[in-house]
Design brief:
Blueprint: H1 6-47, H2 74-78, H3 90-95, H4 97-103, E1 109-118, E2 133-138, E3 143-146, E4 162-171, H5 172-182, E5 187-189, E6 209-217, H6 219-229, E7 232-236, E8 244-248, E9 257-258, H7 260-274, E10 277-279, E11 285-287, E12 297-303, H8 309-317, E13 332-336, E14 341-350, H9 351-358, H10 362-371, H11 394-413, H12 417-430, H13 445-468, H14 473-483, H15 488-511, H16 517-527, H17 531-550, E15 552-553, E16 558-559, H18 561-575, H19 583-588, H20 592-622, E17 651-654, E18 660-664, E19 676-678, E20 684-689, E21 691-694
Parallel strand pairs: 1-12, 2-12, 3-9, 5-8, 11-14
Antiparallel strand pairs: 1-14, 2-3, 4-6, 7-8, 10-11, 13-14, 15-16, 17-18, 18-21, 19-20
Amino acid sequence: MALMPKSKSWRAIIVLAGFAILVAFFYAEENWRGKRAWDHCKQQLEAQGESLNWKDYIPAPVPSHENFFDAPKMAAWFIKPPPDQKLTNEFSARLNFDEFTRQSSASNIVALFEVTVLPPIHSADAVTNSPNLVLRYSSIGNAFFLQDRPVVTNLSSEDINLPQIVFSDVPLTTAIENLAQIAQIKYLLDPKIGYDHPDPDGNTKPEPLLTLRWTNLTAQQALTALINKYGLRLIDNPATNGGHIITFKEASSPTVYASTEVLDRLSTLLDRQIGTNTIGSQNPLFLAKSLNRITPVQIICYSETMPTDEDLIQLIARAFPNHSAHLGSPCIHVQKLGANTLQVKVDAAYAADYLAWSDQFDIDFSLIRETLKRPYARMNGNYNNFFYIPIPNYVTIRGVAQTLAQRAQCHLLQAEPEKALDDLTLVADLCRLLEARPSGKPMTMVASMLNVAIIGLYTDTIRDGMRLNPWKEPQLSALQEQLAKINLPTFVVESLHEERVGVCSYIEGMLSRKPSLWQSFKAESQFVIPRGWLYQNLVNLSALDQEAIDSYDPAHAVVLPERLKRAKRELDEMGSHFRPYTYFVVAVAVNFTRAMQTMARNQTMADEAQIACALERYQIVNGKYPETLNALVPRFINALPHDIVGGKPLRYHLDMDGKYVLYSVGWNETDEGGLLALKKDGTVDLGNGDWAWQSSTN
């Protein structure tokens, strides 16, 4: 084997040594720079009164007889076991709603509607049964209308059923123009639609050509179905008297259109057929009437084709009274009974059956009530490492809250408001296990957000009680007093503080160890990258967390959405591509924008619920709602909560029927008159629309 010449060997050694020295200098420089930046960051935060020492957040021991978690069963129920202990929480298992449906002797599926589909030209004389409702479904445009007009040929009226509407290779805007002319609808086409015209990016959207045939629709119905098919909608034009604008549908709009008359008739039939009802927190449909007393509503639907299951499910779901609440919609099924008959079924439960089943928890709930009288809620365990501190059993806490809320709803259906109040009071008190009370710290972001969710469940149940209308003055007063104590921002901001301290202290402790030279080399090699980069990441993580913390102004009790949006843009920019000083931030940063947004909305709901209780009490005394909220002070409320977004008074107005709308301007900080924005699944769109609370008589 040939040996490398000496000169070349020495040259290679010198190059390698030089490279090693450069790498060493690079690591030393980056480590020094990162450590200095982190020390400077800590000094700045400490000068502002922030403590970054994890030991300051470790809860002090408390007397055992005063500690909630030292009472019998409480630790086993409400503290999550360590990952290495595969323990089954028997209480959580018993609370599972599936246990109720499994043990229920009665069927939990009830048929609500039977839909018979006939061709649009079908003779009404051929219908043997007398239907409760006659609909016209346009499969072209996925739209439902009332069908209660005969087919006529006099085109002098806009409110007639046309024998046929036929288009063959007709441009969409031409078809819209023709139908609007027959329906005598004046309209303007939103320029943003822009068919065959380049948009600001230079892209051209071709105009669709239509080939279709309708039978037995009015021109207005055909127009509505047509524009729905192409993602458009018809709205009033405020600049004209009686004019309209055809513009894009909102992103949250359902894909299936149903006229107001259809939804009103369906809601009326639902109320008449199944009686008082509500949707529980685990999405069952609870009924005040026994399931075996319900017979399906008979519907005749004239259509060119069979409506899809999804179309029928969307239609029926929107007829339920609290579909727009974020609790969700009932579980709806469609079953085919024959060639042209469909049956719409829903998962349901008789309220009395659920109360009888959940009575098994009375002793457990009484034990929790009694134990919550203890002043402290400190979980015993090792608090030295943030990532291994004892944490609440979130599954059990959520299960208890949901069971109690559903019991409250069932008591309300049974006109038992005092029992419903007892259940809701325990829901509110249960939050003590999640909040940073004395000797209860530290508080994690997960705990604070579960607290936010439980308060949302609590206020939704109060709202549902106002819709069902069994609340009386004593319960309203008690609920109002509980609502006045809710202060979600305190706990969410505290969790942001403590998450930052816990993560940063753990990483800093890992980086600041002083091992031997060989151990130091091994430790450094494990990181591959300079440790100084991690210090720089801690600096950026702390700055980002501070932005989220500062987005709440405690002096004025307001949230600043723009500050959070700016922080979110910064985080998105960090994540757009790899950067050595921010890669760790992207990996561990919590979704603080979503957290603060949800907190602000649920605090708003609690504030509005407090005012709503006062409004209902005013209405009981005076027979009507007040003209302004100031009329509530001081007899019905000591002070009016302000809007957590912007700090101005919450908006309030009466309509012509004496009903009220109470609302916050919401996350977009725009007053939209109390208009609620929904997503396609019926849940509230937190980023758009107002955060509104409508009167119980709506």
